[in-house]
Design goal:
The protein contains 34 helices and 13 strands. By secondary structure, it is an alpha+beta fold.
C-alpha cells in the first residue's frame, strides 16, 4: 500500500526504536523531557502544557526520528483523515516549535522539508518509572544544582531582555544612519539631539508595555499550575526584571537629562547669536541683493556683479562698517526690514532695482533706515551697457556721498583707500563672470573656467589689479588641490603683477599674504595681512590667514581666537567654519571639527570640499561607514582627487587593496602631481609581496615630486617628513635620517608628520625611534585603531 495516508504503528518502525506504548510513558529529546500521559513538556525546569494533537504529532515524529514523515501520514495518524485541512497540522507544528523554543530557519528539534514533510532531528530516549520522577525533580531544582543554568534560562525566557537588546541594536543602527543622512539633509545637530531624546523616551515605554504583557500571560499560566518550583521561578524572574526596569529607567533619565541640557545649550547659543547682539553696529550698512524690473533682461552675473563691486568699493573706504555679502548668506530672501535690522545689526539698508531698454541700463538705488523702513535717499543712474564700468564708478560715488550726508561727519573716519576699477567693459565683464563662478563652485573645473575669464580680463586691461590678484588666488587654490609647482609659480607671477600696480586695497594685500603663507614666509605673510586689516579691520580673509599662520607657528590659542573672530564677523559664511574645522581636525579634535564642517554643509549644500572634510572628520573619529558613504557621494558629484584618495585610504585600512588601488589611480587621473597620492598608491602595492617591485618605482616618482615642492617651501615640516619617509622606502636611510634632523619639530602637533617619521624609522630598523613617533602621533590625535590596521607599521604595543 502507498505510504500516503498510512497509519504508523509500532510494528512499522525499527525494532530497536522505542515503541509507541513506551514513548507514551515519557521520553527525552536532548534536554527536553516529554510526558504525553501528563500532557506537558519539561524544559529547563519549566512545565509547559501542550495540546493533545500537538503531543500526538510529536509521538508520530519520535517513532520515525531522523526520517521524513509526510503531512498525509501525520494527518491520517492524528486526525484519522489524510485529506484533513493542512492548517490543523501547521498550527500544531507551530505550537510545538513555540513550546520547544525551536526556530524554523535554524531548527534543533523539528525540521520542515518543503513539499515533503517533517523530520525529528533528535533520537528519543525512553524513560522508565524509576528514573522519571527524579529527573523531573532534578530539572525543577535548577536553582540549587545549576544556578548558572537557571539564571541563563531566566534571561532567555524573558521577552523583556530580548526586546531591550533588539531595541538598543535598532537604535544604534538608526543613529549610524542619522549621522550620515541628517547633515546631507541640512538637519542641524539640535535636530539630531531631539531625535535621540525621543528615542530615549520611547525606550522605557516599550519595555513597560512588554513587561505588562508578559505579566498578564504569566498570571494566566500560574493560575493553571500548582508547581511550587514554577511559582518560585516566576517570583525570582519578577524581582530581577523589576530591578532591570528600575536600572533602565534611571539610566534613561540620566541620558535624557544630559541630552536635554545639550539641546538647551544649543538653544541658548542660538539665542545668544540672535538676541544678545540686539544693539546695531553704529553706522553699519547692508547692501541687499539688487532686483530686475519686470520685462527687463540682463545676465545674472552682471546684476549680482554690480552689487558685489559696490559692496567691495564701500568696504575699501573703511568709513562705514559695510556688512560683507558672505555674512548675509543665511538670511531669508523675504525677510522684512525690521528682521534684517535685528539679524544683521545694521542701521542702514541699501537696495537697488535695474531696468533695461535695449542696450541702455537704468539703476535706481535707495538708502533705507533699517529699524523704521523710512527711505532716506534715492538716486538714479543711466548708462549704456558698454559703459558699465562708468556706471559702477558713478554708483560708488553717489552712494558714498549719500551716506556721508546721512551720517554725521563727526562719526566718519577718513577714507583709507581710493576705489579703482577698470574702464574697459570687456575686462569688467570677464572679471564679473569669473567672480560669480568662484562664488558658486569650488572644484577644479570651476577654477579652470575662472582662470580663463581672468586672463581675458587682463588681456583687455593689463592694469586691472583686482583681476590680477584674483588670478593669483585661483592658482593658489589649484596648487593646494593638485600640489603642482607650476600652479604656484603662476600664482607668484600674478601676485607680483598685482603688487606692482601699487593698489592700496585690502583684498590685494590679503591674497599676497596667502602667497607668502603657503610658501612658509610667515613674517611677510603677517605683514600683508596686517596691511589688509589696517585698510579694513573687518576683512575676514586676513583674519583667517593670520589664524593659519599662528597655527603653523604653534600659537594655537592665537589661531583659535582669530578663527572665532572671523565667525563672529561673518556668521553666515561657510568658509569660516571650514577653515576653523580644519584647524580643529589638525589638532586631533575630530568630533568638534565635524560639527563645524556640518555647519558649513548647511550654509553651502552640495559642496564637495565641505563633504570631503566632513567625511575625513568622521573617519578619524571612528565613524568609518559614514565616512566611506560620504566619500562615495563626493566622487559621484565631482571627480575630486582628494576624495578619491581619501576613499582609497579607507579601503586600504580595510585591507581591500584592489579597491584602494582603483581609487588612488582615479585620484591621480585628476591630480597627477600630488606626491601624497603617489605615496599612497605605492603603499598599496608594497604591502602585496608580489607587487613590491612596482611599488619602488612609484616611491621614486613620489620622491621626485615631493622634492620639487621644496621650491615652494624648503622648510615645510610636513613636506620634509614625507620626503624622509619616501627616502626610507627606497632604503636611502642616511638621507632619510638627515632629512628628519632638518625638521624643526618645536611646537609641531601634526600627527601626519610624526606618523611619516615613524614609518621612516621602522623602514630603517630604528624601532625605538619609530615607537616614540607613533606615540606622539597617537597623542596628537591619530587613531590607535588605524595604527593597528596599517600593515606598514609593525606591532609596537601602542
Amino acid at each position: 500500500m502507498d505510504n500516503q495516508g498510512t497509519l504508523v504503528t509500532p510494528s512499522a518502525v525499527d525494532n530497536t526504536a522505542p515503541s509507541l506504548q513506551t514513548l507514551h510513558h515519557g521520553f527525552c529529546l536532548g534536554e527536553v523531557t516529554v510526558l504525553p500521559a501528563q500532557g506537558f513538556i519539561v524544559l529547563r525546569g519549566e512545565h509547559r502544557h501542550v495540546s493533545a494533537k500537538a503531543l500526538e504529532i510529536l509521538l508520530q515524529l519520535a517513532l520515525q526520528s531522523q526520517t521524513t514523515v509526510s503531512p498525509q501520514q501525520l494527518l491520517s495518524a492524528v486526525w484519522g483523515d489524510a485529506g484533513a485541512a493542512k492548517v490543523n497540522l501547521t498550527h500544531a507544528i507551530s505550537e510545538l516549535r513555540h513550546v520547544l523554543g525551536d526556530h524554523k530557519a535554524c531548527p534543533v528539534y523539528i525540521q520542515t522539508l518543503p513539499r515533503r514533510g517533517y523530520r525529528l532531528l533528535l533520537t528519543p530516549q525512553a524513560l522508565d518509572s524509576n528514573t522519571l520522577v527524579p529527573m523531573i525533580e532534578r530539572r525543577g531544582r535548577l536553582s540549587q544544582d545549576k544556578p548558572r543554568s537557571w539564571l541563563l534560562s531566566l534571561f532567555r525566557g524573558s521577552r523583556l531582555f530580548s526586546v531591550s537588546v533588539a531595541f538598543l541594536v535598532s537604535v544604534w543602527l538608526f543613529i549610524q544612519v542619522m549621522a550620515i543622512t541628517f547633515p546631507l539633509l541640512n538637519i542641524s545637530t539640535t535636530g539630531m539631539k531631539l531625535t535621540l531624546l525621543l528615542l530615549l523616551i520611547v525606550f522605557p515605554l516599550v519595555l513597560l508595555v512588554t513587561w505588562i504583557g508578559d505579566l498578564r500571560q504569566r498570571k494566566k499560566r500560574l493560575a493553571l499550575s500548582d508547581n511550587p518550583d514554577k511559582q518560585r521561578y516566576w517570583r525570582r524572574q519578577f524581582i530581577i526584571e523589576l530591578g532591570f526596569l528600575l536600572l533602565s529607567f534611571t539610566a534613561v533619565a540620566v541620558l535624557a537629562h544630559s541630552v536635554k541640557r545639550a539641546i538647551d545649550a544649543d538653544e541658548a547659543a542660538q539665542s545668544a547669536e540672535t538676541l544678545a547682539p540686539s544693539e546695531p553696529i553704529a553706522n553699519a550698512v547692508a547692501v541687499l541683493p539688487f532686483t530686475l524690473s519686470a520685462g527687463s533682461s540682463i545676465e545674472d552675473y552682471l546684476l549680482d556683479g554690480i552689487r558685489q563691486e559696490l559692496l567691495y568699493s564701500l568696504t575699501q573706504l573703511n568709513q562705514f562698517p559695510v556688512l560683507a555679502d558672505r555674512a548675509m548668506q543665511a538670511i531669508a530672501a523675504d525677510a522684512s526690514y525690521s528682521q534684517l535690522a535685528a539679524e544683521l545689526r545694521v542701521e542702514f539698508l541699501l537696495e537697488g532695482q535695474l531696468s533695461t531698454e535695449g542696450q541702455q541700463l537704468l539703476l535706481e538705488v535707495s538708502v533705507i533706515q533699517a529699524a523704521s523702513g523710512v527711505r532716506l535717499w534715492s538716486g538714479r543712474l543711466s548708462q549704456s551697457r558698454q559703459a558699465l564700468p562708468v556706471l559702477q564708478q558713478a554708483l560708488h560715488r553717489q552712494v558714498h556721498n549719500a551716506l556721508a550726508l546721512i551720517i554725521p561727519a563727526s562719526e566718519l573716519s577718513q577714507p583709507s583707500a581710493e576705489y579703482r576699477i577698470t574702464d574697459n567693459f570687456a575686462a569688467f565683464d570677464a572679471y564679473m563672470q569669473a567672480k560669480q563662478r568662484l562664488k558658486k563652485f569650488d572644484d577644479i573645473a570651476s577654477l579652470d573656467s575662472a582662470e580663463q575669464l581672468l586672463l581675458s580680463a587682463l588681456q583687455a586691461d593689463p592694469d586691472f589689479a583686482m583681476a590680477s590678484a584674483s588670478l593669483c588666488k585661483v592658482h593658489l587654490d589649484k596648487y593646494v588641490l593638485s600640489r603642482s609647482v607650476a600652479e604656484f609659480e603662476l600664482a607668484s607671477q600674478a601676485c607680483q603683477h598685482a603688487a606692482g600696480l601699487q593698489v592700496n586695497q585690502a583684498e590685494v594685500f590679503a591674497i599676497l599674504g596667502e602667497l607668502y603663507r603657503i610658501s612658509g614666509q610667515y613674517s611677510d605673510a603677517l605683514t600683508r595681512y596686517e596691511q589688509a586689516l589696517q585698510l579694513n579691520p573687518r576683512w575676514v580673509d586676513a583674519l583667517t590667514g593670520k589664524a593659519m599662520v599662528f597655527s603653523a607657528q604653534g600659537n594655537k590659542d592665537g589661531a583659535e581666537q582669530q578663527f572665532k573672530l572671523a565667525i563672529e564677523l561673518e556668521p553666515g559664511y561657510w568658509q569660516n567654519y571650514m577653515l576653523y574645522g580644519r584647524f580643529l581636525y589638525e589638532a586631533g579634535r575630530f568630533a568638534v571639527a565635524a560639527r563645524h564642517f556640518a555647519r558649513a554643509a548647511q550654509l553651502k549644500p552640495g559642496s564637495t570640499d565641505v563633504l570631503n572634510s566632513l567625511a575625513a572628520a568622521w573617519f578619524f573619529s571612528g565613524q568609518f561607514a559614514q565616512a566611506i558613504d560620504a566619500w562615495q557621494q563626493v566622487v559621484a558629484l565631482s571627480p575630486l582627487a582628494l576624495s578619491y584618495s581619501n576613499l582609497g585610504t579607507a579601503y586600504y585600512f580595510n585591507a581591500d587593496y584592489t579597491q584602494a588601488e582603483q581609487m588612488y589611480r582615479q585620484a591621480l587621473a585628476n591630480s597627477g602631481d600630488d606626491y601624497t597620492i603617489w605615496t599612497n598608491l605605492a603603499d598599496v602595492l608594497d604591502v602585496q609581496a608580489e607587487r613590491q617591485p612596482e611599488a619602488l618605482a612609484l616611491y621614486q616618482k613620489a620622491l621626485v615630486l615631493a622634492e620639487r615642492n621644496l621650491l615652494v617651501d624648503s622648510q615645510a615640516p610636513a613636506l620634509l617628513s614625507q620626503i624622509s619617509r619616501l627616502q626610507s622606502e627606497l632604503q636611502l636611510c642616511d638621507a632619510a635620517l638627515q632629512t628628519e634632523q632638518n625638521i624643526s619639530s618645536a611646537n609641531q602637533t601634526d600627527f601626519y608628520l610624526f606618523y611619516d617619521l615613524a614609518i621612516a624609522s621602522f623602514n630603517c630598523q630604528r624601532n625605538d625611534s619609530g615607537s616614540r613617533y607613533i606615540s606622539q602621533a597617537i597623542r596628537y590625535g591619530y587613531p590607535a585603531q588605524l595604527v593597528a590596521a596599517d600593515p606598514k607599521v609593525p606591532d609596537t604595543g601602542q
